[in-house]
Here is the input.
Amino acid sequence: MKFTLSWLKDHLDTGADLPAILDAMTMAGLEVEHVDNPAEKLAAFSVAKIVEAVQHPNADRLRVCQVDTRDGRKEIVCGAPNARPGLTTIYAPLGTFIPGSGITLEPRAVRGVVSNGMLCSAAELETADESDGILELDGALAVGTAAAEALGLADAVIDFEVTPNRPDWLGVDGIARELAAAGLGTVRTAPVTPVPGSFPCPVSVRIDSPQACPAFAGRLIRGVKNGPSPQWLQDRLRAIGLRPISALVDVTNLLSYDRARPLHVFDAGKLTGGLVIRMGRDGESLTALDGKTYALRPADCVIADDTGVVSISGIMGGEPTGCTDDTTDVFLESALWTPLNMFQTGRATGIVSDARYRFERGVDPGFMLPGLELATRLILDLCGGEASDVVMDGAVPAGRAPVVFDLAATWRLTGMDVPEAEQVRILTTLGFTPEALGEGRYRVAMPSWRRDVEGPADLVEDIARIAGFDHLPQTPLPQRAGRKLPTETPRQQRVRIARRTLAGLGWSEAVTWSFAQRAICELFGAPQGGGPLLLANPIASDLDCMRPSALIHLILASQRNADRGFGRLALFEAGPVYAGDAPGDQQTVLAAVTRGAERHWAGEAAPDVFSVKADLMGVLEALGAPVAGMQVVQGARSWWHPGRSGTVRMGPKTVIAEFGELHPRVLKAMGVDGPVLGFELFLEAIPPAKTKVGKAKPKLTLSPYQPLSRDFAFVVPQGTAAGDLTRAVANADKSLIAGVSVFDRYAGPGVPDGHVSLALEARIQPQAATLTDAEIEALGQKIVAAATKQGASLRG
Amino acid sequence: MTTNIATLETELTAAVETAADEAALEAVRVAALGKKGSVSELLKGLGGMSPEERQLAGPAINGLKVRLTDLIAARKAVLAEAALDARLMAERVDVTLPARPRLKGSVHPVMQVFEEVQAIFADMGFAVAEGPDIEDDFHNFTALNFPEKHPARDMHDTFFFNEKEDGSRMLLRTHTSPVQVRTMLSQKPPIRITAPGRTFRCDSDQTHTPMFHQIEGLVIEEGIHMGHLKGVLMEFMRAFFEVDDVEVRFRPHHFPFTEPSAEMDVRCDRSGGQIRIGTGSSWLEILGCGMVHPNVLRACGIDPDVHQGFAFGMGIDRLAMLKYGIPDLRDMFAADVRWIDHYGFTPTVQPNLATGLS
Here is the structure.
């Protein structure tokens, strides 16, 4: 919302200067966003008169001028063709920053003659887009007059944020009221005096859709002379960025900003019959004042005459019935429109108008008729004519009932101690009517423009913000009884441990978008077409679907980094993935992606399936996951390399993680060069640690007997999972076998075709006594028997 | 005889001393002291001697044997030492060669700051609550006192999913406030929680990204007023920015879900293209807050005449930028390894109040 300082002063009698007003606004909740203060911007510039202008000795196009300025007579070199003796113009002294050219004046010789300042054009002052020569001002202006004053730009333009609960701030009178309450002066908005009608209104009005239009009033003014509005009105509108159109239209725009009261003027000569307020009909359309044609729906409220729709209610009038310079009879409309309808029709048509902006937030119902009277007065003053009686249908709805308010609520909610008299003063100045009930209790009636106030909390807000949040005490939060408990959720704890472990293993953490490109999401398991994961209004076409995997952006980022020359990387992210739109469909994963080799004198360093697996297992160990109970099975879902990927599972159903190399076809579809490796760990799939009483760890028993190890070489058919073989060997005697490792894998001469030799070392830990040779032999046979069940035979 | 022994000793001593390595020395030892060695043969000859001869030759030969044995042992030690020196010299590597490359891991500043913030609020007794990113209209708007189809909803630039058959449509939460609602619906006061998480708005420019991070605070306890809100936030600011004092101002504002509502600004210095907290002549908006609106309490089944409390919400990304001098918000989510390397944290720096936040 924009307004000017002088406009404000029409409504507020104040001695406060601009900074004080801006500060008071912001601290009352009217957050100032921008101030354009020409007086400040042009402070260095002032009126000057050229006394003498002679040809520059060394340049045809330049003149050397003697100029009377507020700094005395100056010699100034000027290139403008209109620099001539007697001209009154604007002067800038040395050291001035010239906004239009972006330079700061320095003393320098222009072709041998030193110029002691500059004579300025409108473009150089940024008061016009372009100009032809230096400014030519009224010769009556005194030398030294401030440029802003001389140019009629002394008025500061203030732009501030109007929060959606306060549509009354969309009128300058409402701003004045807030500032008066804040102690900056007194409101002096002139009261509205009704204009009596001198004849019955020939245009009838009827409301057929009362749910969209509770009340509609209007009157005819005949015999007007339309044309450009007076300069003061044009200046006022221009200052806030509006384009003056004609006196009749400018009056409506003025009141839209002066009183937050939108109005509409019809050329009565172009209306046929009476006006009916009704809902639109399928097939109806209207060419509005913006020149565009809008189709109307049964959900849109319209104003129609006998020929059809003449206005999209409260949003924009129709072009065919609009006022022009030829208008002599005008029908002036002041109505109440239901905000919900305005919001829906505004959305559907996409029309952005000052009227829509106000109606969809809610205008002051109490000012519907006064607004009509005030506009009538202005039209009669500016355009002449004669006003009819007011016609009206519907009724202005009653305001909210008064509330009983205990002033103690102010302290109870804010901790601020505001004296009773001050609380009552604030409410009264803001337009409330507090009626004392005794013991600090008041019955408070709401002003018609404060539809946002429902109850005591709203009154407390008004009192507190006007009294000033500066007075808020600073009170420590009371300590809660009992011991302090850790606050991290189990999920957060997993995320933190997993992240920090992986970072410690050399991976770099990233945070990437929760949404990705639908086509890519489909490659990672999202439903075809995106299903419930597809956004209706994505920010960009490549971010239109909630990600089913956190690998996607890491893979894409790995390529961007590689393209920039940083191809060896290890990235990870702990974040959400989405399987559907229900709360339970979101889960947290730890996704990791790595690629790129680094040449090294001792052999190339590059990630492979097993380096990735090692780090994945390291994270699982750090999480305290029951790794011993997990199985690694060959293969993972379709976006992984079918031969170089695996799945970590617990039991047949629970997938803990997938790892390996990404599928080259998927990478290609993403425009990514392979190989790219990684894993995705489903943090929430890990079963929670068994709860036990106390924090003590189980008793440690250390065997006093020397451990030993035995090696076995097995021949197995190609394709036999080494993991199955080692697990079988380890399970051959769980009480004695402490661990099994694979120390060699061989295929070639000596091993039958289609087979491989796997060399296993079993670490044996005797528990009760040192093993005898016979016991060791028996254990060896158990191991071989277990391996044989897996299709292995002892290598001869 | 004695002459023979003396000659043999001279020869053998020379042989020991000139043995070049342990093998040569062993050959000398075998030749002298082995079963058929020269000294051993002499000893064997003692048996055939007369007692007088033996009396003379015995000590001489045995003396030779002892001296020779000692000599060989000494020589052997010298040779072993020399052999070790030679081997070690042969094992020399150029230690100035580069070590095996290892990637340097790091933690993202946004995640680091989440942990910092949580550590501070944990000390003030705030538990953590979480909720889903994909929300419904009730939790994101209606329960938070956003009027139906009101411009206030438009201001949130909400991401929507497609309409379902029943006309409803899910959305991406525009703030972490739905977690307030979920918490109040599932817990009875007293409530003291923070709710960290991802949030989304359909907006993208230098200071807005379509995804960002917030932390929400909610306290519903007896006698809690706006002064407590200010106290908590002041304590937070000092702890987070690690300064003794931060000047703040509470500026009235409007949020549908709080009444009274305020935005909090911190004093800052913007000169030199960087923002510094704590000094200067500018203000920087840092968070929104207020007393929970009676309608919100009612929507969550809490009687506003009995319970009251405050809520606040702030942007984690913005806090990270301010504290760590990160210039552009958009870089946060680009996963550029150069950026990560520069702004990331070493994983051993785990924020807590005992060892420091950062």
User: Anything to note?
Assistant: The longest helix of chain A spans residues 773-789. Chain A touches chain B through 103 residues (CB under 8 Å). Chain A is about 25% helix and 25% strand. Residues 172 and 258 of chain A are 5 Å apart (CA to CA).
